[in-house]
Write a structure and sequence with these properties.
By secondary structure, the chain is of the alpha/beta class. It has 13 helices and 9 strands.
Length: 306
């Protein structure tokens, strides 16, 4: 595998293998307090154009806990497409490191890095997709429910990069995906066409009514209404997303066995309430921890050949 840019590029069997390795390494860490040094002598270069908490810590810890090293580079240091073209950065870093992990604004930068890198390139978030987050989400659901196929994930919020990746992941593993957004914030028609072309078996439902959308949900999922780069739209978005908050009332419309997910950071009191975040039905923080375990499993496949 030459990296991990999009979930759609891999078969269900390959993705299932990543989850299995992630679960195995998580179990080893929990039971013994350590992982085997499968990344000994390996270094990952981490490029961050966007700020990060979970992504930076999880990829760094994934490398360190398995005996490897991680070098973090800020967007200002690297200057992708500004200080240096992506093709130069890719060749420099792949000549010195064993993997490139990039969190970028424009998805095209990832494609250029992969084209010119001789080492695996991992998408740690772009404006178009967030595949590592979606895979960590499925790891969380599988741990909780003991299965994935046949579950229903209802996403309530902005039709964004997280929604796209989560939809593809659901399609690959046989989950139903309900995307509930205000009409003006729905995934564009061309995105839906692209998703169905990538994963024809995807059971995708469009909704604009949160109460109706969660009635059969096994997981109720949300993300911030205002992503990085959209700050000027914040007040308008708050008005437009009125009624799309995950709160006690919305949770009461869902099955009692349903769980709450949020990819974080959460703006409590906007897209989700404190009550929902701290509810016994919330898996938000196990979900956040699983970013570490999936990233470790992914790197184990890419760097250690597991």
């Amino acid at each position: 595998m030459k990296g991990f840019i999009a979930i759609a590029e891999y078969s269900a069997a390959e993705l299932e293998h990543m989850l299995e390795i992630s679960a195995r390494l998580k179990k080893q860490l929990k039971e013994t307090g350590r992982n085997d040094p499968i990344f000994a002598g390996k270094t990952a270069a981490l490029i961050f154009e966007k700020p990060s908490l979970r992504t930076r810590v999880s990829f760094t810890q994934a490398m360190l806990q398995c005996g490897g090293n991680a070098i973090t580079l800020t967007g200002e240091e690297v200057g992708l497409g500004k200080r240096e073209p992506e093709k130069d950065v890719a060749r420099v870093l792949s000549g010195m490191c064993d993997a490139i992990v990039a969190r970028v604004f424009e998805h095209q930068k990832l494609l250029e890095l992969r084209q010119y890198s001789s080492k695996p390139v991992v998408n740690a978030l772009s404006d178009y997709s967030h595949p590592c987050q979606a895979m960590a989400d499925l790891l969380t659901l599988k741990e909780h429910f003991g299965r994935l196929r046949g579950l229903t994930v209802t996403y309530v919020g902005d039709g964004n990069n997280v929604a796209r990746s989560l939809a593809v992941a659901c399609g690959k593993f046989g989950l139903r995906f309900v995307c509930c957004t205000p009409q003006a914030y729905a995934l564009p028609g061309e995105d839906l066409d692209h998703l169905m072309a990538q994963v024809p078996q995807l059971d995708f439902v469009v909704s604009h009514d949160p109460t109706d959308a969660v009635r059969e949900a096994d997981a109720i999922y949300t993300d911030t209404w205002t992503s990085m780069g959209q700050e000027a739209e914040k007040q308008q978005r708050i008005r437009d997303f009125n009624g799309f908050q995950i709160n006690a009332k919305l949770m009461a419309a869902a099955p009692e066995t349903s769980v709450v997910l949020h990819c974080l950071p959460a703006y409590r009191g906007l897209e989700i309430t404190d009550e929902a975040m701290e509810s016994p039905r919330s898996l938000v923080f196990p979900q956040a921890e699983n970013r570490l375990h999936f990233q470790k499993g992914l790197l184990a496949v890419l760097l250690a050949g597991l």
